[in-house]
Structure prediction request, 92 residues.
Amino acid sequence: MAVIFESQIKIDEEGKWFIELTDTVDGRVAVCHDLDEYSQKVEDFGGDYGGNIDEVKWAKDDNVPPHTMDEIRLEMSKHQEEIEKQKAEQGE
Prediction:
């Protein structure tokens, strides 16, 4: 069984972005308002499969503006740097 998560970037009524995370195996959905929350939910969902996630598919709604995508990419990059720094400090 392939474990595939879908991550859909959306805009709420107030113009703020969020990520809707869907576990395609069991249909669970989580709404994440920042990348810390998103990372935690991916970890939580993935824990049910021993951390073995085959793929995370990304998409965005048509109304998500380019500057929002740039903001999310920048935050993701910073988030990844923090994770790598923590791993290095722990000797992993």
Q: What stands out?
A: The two ends are 29 Å apart (CA to CA). The chain has one domain: 4-89. The CA atoms of residues 3 and 54 lie 5 Å apart. Residues 4-89 form one domain.
